Each structure stands twice: as structure tokens, then as C-alpha cells.
Amino acid sequence: MQSLSSKENFFIGVALSNSSNYDSSICVLDRNSNIVFLDKFYFTQDIDYFFETSPYVKDSAICASVAYDNKMLDGKWRIHSKNYKALGDYFKVNKDDWTNRISKRCVETFLKLKQTGNKIIRTDINQLRQAYGLNSHYLSRTSLDCKNLQISLKIKYGFSQMPDNMLPASSLEAILCSMFAMEYVNNIETTQIFEINEVPVLARTMK
Question: Is the per-residue pLDDT at 3 higher than 70?
Fold first, then answer.
């Protein structure tokens, strides 16, 4: 276990889905990398409630994954693009924000946490898995992929307190985010990719 130079007592990881149709998860690690909280959430209001009421939020560092917007293109755009027709002035290219790749879910929540003094970053789960040497040979988020990730976290990173039954993919990703939050405040080398509403999106340097 590496020695910690930061003053934070808890490290919160948020694996955020792009809508309430899919589960998000929050994991809290203490300074000894013990999992002290791990749960699923579906609605934004529940995530907000956690950050408003949880005792772990004080003196914590937070890392939330980037949720990508995967909504379907509207029918009018498909018709125009399929026929390779030039778009007239009457057609608004960014109608319904379909060109935005990043979901705006919980951006106000994370900005508020930053403004109240919490150390908060965001990250891309796929890059984080590669940086930790946990990228899989299986299709992402399948049962084989989740089993491989859970066993790897147990053996390689010492999370022996995880149950034998399969955890949800979002819970495993939340553990990764909380690990990154701990490393971030203890000065691991990172690279900023971009920002979402004033919160930096960081990549962990691969070794």
C-alpha cells in the first residue's frame, strides 16, 4: 500500500450512466483502500441526495466517469444524410443537441461540489482500464468481461472484501474511479484531455 500524502479521508468514485434507464454506481474507499460504501443508483435525484447527505463527502476526493450521449439521430437528419443532399438554412444542424457526444447529466452536481471546495475530476472508463492494465479481451460489459474485471481487482489490487457473486459493471467501474481519485490527490501523473463545465477530464498516465 502506498503512503498517502493527501489530507482526504475518503475517495469517491462515480460510474455515471447517460440516463436513468441504466444503473450508475458510487464507491467510497477509505485511506486503506477498503470499500466502505458501494451501491447502485438510477435517478439523478438519488445521486444528488447522496452528495448532499453522505458523511463521506466531507474531506473527500471525487472522480466521476464521463457519460456519453448515445441517443439516436432524428429522422429528418437521417433522411437528408442518406440522400447526400445539401442542407438548407431551414435545417438546424444541431437540432436537439444531437451532435453533442458528451451527456450533460449531473454536470451541475459536480460543478457545485467543486465550488464548495471538493477536489473533483472526471475520467474516461476505457482509458482508465487500459492505464490500470485491466482492459479485457472480451466484449465490454458482458458477463465474461465483468467476471474478468472483478477477479483482476481482487488479485491485482487487493480488493479481497468483494463478494464472490458478480457485481454490476457500474459498481466495478466505480471502484476504478475511486482508485483514480486516491491516486490523483497523491500526485500521480495525469494528462488533461478537456473540461466539462469547468471540471477537468483527466487521463491516467500509462506505465
Answer: no
